[in-house]
Amino acid sequence: MSHAAIAAPSRRTAYLPRNKKRILCVFPAYSPSFGTFEHAFPLMGVRAFMPPQGILLVAAYMPASWEVRFIDENIRPARMSDYQWADAVIASGMHIQRRQINQIGDLAHRWGKITAVGGPSVSGCPEYYPDFDLIHIGELGDATDQLIEYIDLHSERPAAQIRLETKERLPLERFPIPAYEQIDLNHYMMGTVQFSSGCPYACEFCDIPALYGRNPRLKTPEQVLAELDTMLRSGNPGAVYFVDDNFIGNRRAVAELLPHLIDWQKRNGYPIQFACEATLNIAQSPKLLEMMREAYFCTVFCGIETPEPEALKSISKTHNLSMPILEAIRVLNSYGMEVVSGIILGFDTDTPQTAERLLEFIRLSQLPMLTINLLHALPRTPLWNRLAQEGRIVDLDGRESNVDFKMPYDEVMAMWRRCITTVYSPEYLYERFAYNCEHTYPNRIALPNSPQRTSWDNILKGITILSNILLKIGILGDYRETFWKMALPALQSGRIEELIHIALVGHHLITFARQCAAGQEEASFYSQKVEAAT
């Protein structure tokens, strides 16, 4: 990883520093979980899932005269020499990284360094970080300039914590390109790009409206293309995820962006496939779906949450009922898009029959991948406010959720464990992938054999991944018989990319589910129980 000073992009802080400073930006490691895909890393030869957009953006926003060093601890930990080098240390992350964030602050303080923390966790819960010198609440904006000014003018830690809260957010069209030159993108499973911030909906359990607003803010299409160009100069993982809270939060803006993405893909020989997160009612926008297909969007994450209508009404997610859920999934599949679903157990409307209804929904929908998660109340959500008033927020060691469920806790846990182990048994998972091989993947556009796709680097990468898969799953794996039922026909018909996709994703899901069955993984991806023990 490069330790050179960042080359100046077109947009930085408006503050003009008086002094030269060295800034260490550290992103903490994730604990293993469903969404980090760590079990696929050895097969791919990568070290982490996605580069962290937020802190790379902060690194790029620093004054041009300052030296900035970025370290993603999912790639390698910050060393003593990194802390000694720095004048100030900036950390960022989510609630699940709370312990690691505070550990970064403690290590920096051992060397007397000024510490600052920003990002979604401290913005939602400043009280989680009592020992940091500067806490940055909110998005990039005037508070960021104030933070930079403080670091510029001070060499010693403040006597008490200073709280900086963004009042004027920097418009997204003025965001700098994230500091991709500080990373090797080939170390990551996929790249990331942001087009919008915020979501127009107000689901009860979600903190996005409180953190980022309900009126999506936007970058320009030209910005997105510039980021893609810059990203590819740092490597090409083959896939890029739009990390927008809701990619179709502003449908008119997306309709303006997509022709630019199509043109970019054609000019560059379709070097990557896109993925995004969107509400399920995207299925009612055929013009958008056709353009997304042409831009080579292959995966859409939809927060289905539950197939039960009464539960959706109770959590203010009635937009999932604007058309039958199974029909919406079929529509997305018809445009070549594999649907990944968010599922939550533990709603007040759940009954002992909920698990059976969920398993039947999975059978009918043929969704290969679902994030089956226990309900967890996040601060600054309507759910937290309601449960706090009802005295149903609990903080007990050993619990996987902070919610006092209406059903007995042990029954909810058993329901979760039954669902996740059933859904990710090798035979059942590969059966659902087989459906998508027949009904989803053939609906994607035919890609050109462009130099960008058939480069020697890409060919060597594909051969290496395929060899690892054939050895570690096809020969040494304990579900190799199930694997070969899929792999042999795919090899014979030349569907190598499908084989690799199914094997990588499937191996992570199968391994994760087995660890869940053994009590080694958390039932809520916000749980601190396993995170704190790791």
TrEMBL record:
UniProt keyword annotations, A-Z: Iron, Iron-sulfur, Metal-binding, S-adenosyl-L-methionine
Entry-linked InterPro entries: Aldolase_TIM (IPR013785), BchE-like (IPR051198), DUF4070 (IPR025274), Elp3/MiaA/NifB-like_rSAM (IPR006638), HpnP-like (IPR034530), Methyltransferase_Class_B (IPR034466), rSAM (IPR007197), rSAM_sf (IPR058240)
Cofactors required: [4Fe-4S] cluster
Protein name (record): Radical SAM domain-containing protein
Gene Ontology CC annotations of this record: cytosol
Domain Radical SAM core: 185-418
Organism name: Gloeobacter kilaueensis (strain ATCC BAA-2537 / CCAP 1431/1 / ULC 316 / JS1)
UniProt-recorded Gene Ontology molecular function terms: catalytic activity; iron-sulfur cluster binding; metal ion binding
PANTHER family listed in its UniProt record: ANAEROBIC MAGNESIUM-PROTOPORPHYRIN IX MONOMETHYL ESTER CYCLASE-RELATED (PTHR43409), BLR2995 PROTEIN (PTHR43409:SF9)
Presence of keyword Iron: yes
Pfam families tied to this protein: DUF4070 (PF13282), Radical_SAM (PF04055)
Gene3D superfamilies listed in its UniProt record: Aldolase class I
